[in-house]
């Protein structure tokens, strides 16, 4: 960096006949060099300002895109890997590695045409065969992908995932290096949406050489806009631009950091100190102060995500619908969102967000209707019928993750339950432990959240389908419910399809394997220096579209 200035001075000395042995000349040269170094030191922070530090909801357990199980891991993986499609700055679907695609008349065959000249971040050529390998690996039972069932719409995928047939039987094939063909079990117009998150490729030449720990600094090879440079658990993940990304010339940042921000109070303090540029959520007790003192940084907008309680229906007494119904009925959702959260959330009575149900809109099952006192009376009777009263109270273990706002919300729910013959034991844990427990069935009742994989009712109801594996945390298994979803998958008429989803909503609304609480509103802090951050209901903000304002 500093060679050029010294060469200039050497050239000048030569042209003017001066020598470095000349004391005056030497002093002048030293003075100029010191001035230049000071100037460069002043300029250096300006160069370093093309860096964004993001608070993330948790610390990643893995960055293998076939094994990520939560949003904070997927957020990072989307920077390291790019699939056939990708997100635009406002959450729209854009061509990714596929510059275009064709869909057969029956909606069952997708032909993807890849961009020319694609490579992995280590320079290895990227071809359609990489997608074939990646999808087969995703469904291979050895991989144990927690979300494989999300893509059971690909022909043969469920049988592959269960080990009934080999991965080669999956409905994907390579026509040539730039043409990849995918066959589906049923029409899925939302396929380009879900492939953004769940169709990410992995490098066979690295995975099979480096083994299970291939997705680590020094070995991880991706194809996204950024590369993994550093990963310090509980501290930060540092990414730097991938010069071989197909759209690399449009990436403005010099680096992108992700910092775990489970303690939101600490994250806000770090934001105020200029240490991080984005806080993923603003707690209720800080909102008024931020409105008054930091309005330029506050971002509030609707979300398609939902917070809910999941009941382990395979563990007594939560295998009894009356117990689940009573606990859900006693929750005063409107009070929760209007008097406690007060941040734009919407009270939820169904897992499906009303915005994705078209003209059918919002659904509220009969058992959650009526006044608060009416519901409370019916809930007490249900518990009495199930054998619980003041002399024999229902004991509930409620697990949740250790974020400030989550803890406060679960405390409110427990106090609402206290109006019943219920004794709630609140158990807090870190995010990875909570998710591991709920996926393995090691819980009674747990707080959970879901952000849709695509804007479609099926992505919500999927959470309760018997074939959804560990993503069906409740263990709910209802053949009638599954049949309704399967029929909706095959239905082409959009109105009839929505009607089937509404029937499915009504069924789980009666049985309450989960108790919806509220639909989220995003409340974030984003530094005004960060440019290109667009508010939308998917709340995805790819680093390739971000830049930093140079004041």
Your description of this structure?
With 551 residues, the chain is an alpha+beta fold. The chain folds into four domains: 46 residues; 177 residues, Dipeptide-binding Protein, domain 1, CATH 3.90.76; 76 residues, D-Maltodextrin-Binding Protein, domain 2; 222 residues, Dipeptide-binding Protein, Domain 3 (Dipeptide-binding Protein, domain 3, Roll), CATH 3.10.105.10. The strands form five sheets. Strands 11, 12, 13, 14, 15, 16 and 17 form a seven-stranded mixed β-sheet that branches. The protein has a four-stranded mixed β-sheet with strand order 1-10-9-8, covered by helices on one side. The radius of gyration is 27 Å and the shape is globular.
Protein traits:
4-stranded mixed sheet, 7-stranded mixed sheet, D-Maltodextrin-Binding Protein, domain 2, 551 residues, 19 strands, Dipeptide-binding Protein, domain 1, alpha+beta, 4 domains, disordered N terminus, 20% strand
């Amino acid at each position: 960096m500093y060679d050029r200035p010294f060469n200039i001075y050497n050239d000048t000395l030569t042209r003017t006949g001066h020598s470095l042995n000349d004391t005056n000349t030497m002093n002048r040269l030293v003075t100029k060099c010191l001035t230049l170094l000071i100037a460069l030191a002043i300029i250096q922070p300006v160069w370093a300002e093309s860096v964004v530090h993001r608070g993330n909801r948790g610390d990643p357990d893995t960055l293998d895109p076939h094994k990520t199980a939560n949003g904070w891991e997927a957020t990072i993986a989307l920077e390291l890997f790019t699939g056939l499609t990708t997100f635009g700055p406002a959450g729209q679907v854009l061509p990714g590695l596929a510059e275009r695609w064709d869909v057969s008349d029956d909606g069952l065959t997708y032909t993807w045409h890849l961009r020319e000249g694609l490579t992995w971040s280590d320079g290895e050529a990227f071809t359609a065969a990489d997608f074939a390998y990646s999808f087969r690996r995703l469904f291979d039972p050895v991989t144990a992908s927690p979300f494989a069932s999300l893509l059971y719409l690909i022909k043969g995928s469920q049988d592959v995932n269960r080990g009934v047939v080999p991965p080669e039987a999956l409905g994907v094939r390579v026509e040539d290096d730039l043409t990849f063909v995918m066959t589906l079990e049923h029409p899925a117009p939302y396929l380009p949406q879900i492939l953004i998150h769940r169709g990410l490729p992995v490098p066979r030449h690295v995975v099979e050489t480096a083994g299970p720990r291939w997705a680590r600094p020094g070995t991880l090879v991706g194809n996204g806009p950024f590369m993994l440079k550093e990963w310090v658990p509980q501290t930060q993940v540092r990414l730097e631009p991938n010069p071989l990304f197909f759209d690399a010339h449009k990436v403005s940042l010099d680096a992108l950091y992700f910092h775990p921000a489970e303690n939101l109070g600490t994250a806000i303090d770090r934001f105020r100190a200029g240490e991080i540029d984005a806080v993923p959520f603003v707690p209720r007790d800080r909102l008024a102060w931020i409105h008054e003192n930091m309005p330029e940084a506050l971002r509030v907008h609707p979300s398609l995500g939902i917070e809910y309680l999941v009941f382990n229906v395979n563990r007594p007494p939560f295998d009894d619908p009356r117990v689940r119904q009573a606990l859900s009925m006693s929750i005063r959702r409107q009070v929760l969102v209007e008097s406690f959260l007060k941040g734009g959330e919407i009270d939820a009575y169904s897992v499906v967000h009303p915005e994705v149900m078209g003209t059918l809109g919002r659904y509220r099952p009969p058992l959650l209707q009526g006044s608060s006192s009416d519901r409370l009376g019916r809930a007490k009777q249900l518990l009495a019928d199930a054998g619980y009263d003041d002399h024999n109270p229902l004991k509930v273990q409620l697990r949740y993750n250790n974020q400030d706002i989550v803890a406060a919300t679960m405390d409110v729910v427990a106090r609402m339950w206290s109006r019943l013959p219920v004794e709630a034991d609140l158990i807090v844990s870190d995010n990875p432990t909570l998710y591991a427990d709920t996926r393995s069935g090691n819980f009674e009742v747990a707080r959970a959240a879901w952000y849709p994989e695509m804007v479609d009712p099926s992505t919500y109801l999927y959470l309760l389908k018997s074939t959804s594996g560990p993503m069906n945390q409740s263990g709910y298994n209802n053949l009638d419910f599954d049949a309704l979803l399967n029929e909706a998958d095959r239905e082409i008429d959009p109105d009839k399809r929505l009607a089937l989803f509404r029937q499915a909503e009504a069924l789980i609304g009666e049985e309450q394997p989960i108790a919806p609480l509220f639909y989220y509103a995003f409340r974030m802090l984003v530094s005004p220096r960060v440019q290109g951050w667009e508010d939308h209901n998917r709340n995805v903000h790819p680093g390739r579209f971000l830049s930093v304002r140079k004041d």
